[in-house]
Amino acid sequence: MSAQIDIGRDTNGQSIFIDLEELLATRLLVQGNSGSGKSHLLRRLLEECAGMVQQVVIDPEGDFVTLADHFGHVVIDGAAYSPKEIEMLAGRVRQHRASVVLALEELEVEQQIRCAALFLTALFDAPREHWYPALVVVDEAQMFAPAAAGEMNDDTRRMTLSAMTNLMCRGRKRGLAGIVATQRLAKLAKNVAAEASNFLMGRTFLDIDMQRAADLLGMDRRQAERIRDLQRGQFLGLGPAVSRRPVAVHVGAVRTGGKNAAQVLLPLPDAPGDEMEALLTNRLMEAAAADQPARRPAPPPRPAVDLEQALTAAPVAKQAETPPAPKPAAPSQPPRSAAEAAQETPDVMTVTRELASSEGATFRPAAALFRDFAIRCRQRGIASAHVDLVAFRRLFAFALAGLDRLDPHRRALVEGMAGKVGEDVLAPYLALVVAAATGDAMPQEHELARLYGSSSPSRVRRLLDHLERAGLIVVREDFGGERSITVPGIAALTAPGETA
């Protein structure tokens, strides 16, 4: 899986890429006047890296909720939850590594700011074991990190500035990579803007904004005039994740569209003047005297169990295109393990093995694999409702590693060892365990890379370092550079295998 994402073309028609791994470490600032194409740029970036990294979008206008239709994002309606529930949701977003869109369009401006601040703070305060890498996109960032106090009260301003400063200044060590987009740099707090190392500057006309943009891009005052001449969808990019020198980018096409489409000219109604006047004034007094409907009815209280379903059951239901299971009246039973699911329905494992043996399977997103799994099961009449996305990922790892090659006793031992290993590294770890248990040579680096869904040797080395730090394997390297891997806890292991 490449860490390079294509965002558009330069003036010569060459592709311009963003290094996703570098972006996670260095953050991004996007600026452009209304209509310059900021939202289009953010949408292109999110679409191109969907499935590669967790995404959290703070969406004050509801522009990005359509990502859920194509990429399985969970849409969180900020108006439907209490402040405590918003904090709980943020914690579960980090725990389950769910890609979400926090939609705030149904709230008043100050409520939007407080809701986003609570959500960002809870993301930042997540336990260390949940510090997974995630892109955090904040559209209209000048609302959430204003340079001046404006009309919001002091408590709200302190809360939101603290949340945005933590995201941009200290979020990297917690896996949070901030991407902030603003209409005007002059309205964005300087301590937030200054923490970004990558910049994409769109069209702007005010001298103060042009000068700040030119300063960030390393351009002189005369060159700053280029910013005024940019067309819609054109940006000047600079930064370690984009380019070491300023480069012009014309953002590419997107697959999803905003809920609020761009305005286009439409024919005016051809009703005569007296008919139009009648339409405007008919029963006007009665309508004015009637009670006006509330902007939005108060949502009913939601039990905590619904919050878990919003992050686990809902994405699975959308991806598998099956209706969600009805809520049980009695307390639910403990979830079954992947091994128990396979024993109850052996055909489920057959379908999983077919998927695992298909070409390029490990390079596909887990959500897409799970959707294919559910469709194949339905086509064959195999019950698979009890296998959720988490259980499927473990079954898929079992199939990739060839666990069926082991006798029942060794298989049970290996499954017990894999119980606390994360799904993202489970397949390569199990391949090492199976090789140790059978006495075979350890997988070569290219095979581990395939199981890991990567083609990068450096990522395989980092994977082995991670497994060793977790105490799952022991890696020894001699002076000649030959590496041997030992898996603790396998009684049948007689000698360490070799990898290249």
UniProtKB/TrEMBL annotation:
Residues 323-334 have a biased composition (Pro residues). SUPFAM superfamilies: P-loop containing nucleoside triphosphate hydrolases. Residues 24-214 form the AAA+ ATPase domain. Residues 317-347 are annotated as: Disordered. SMART domains: AAA. InterPro entries: AAA+_ATPase, ATPase_Atu1862_pred, HerA-like, HerA_central, P-loop_NTPase. It comes from the Bacteria. This is AAA+ ATPase domain-containing protein.
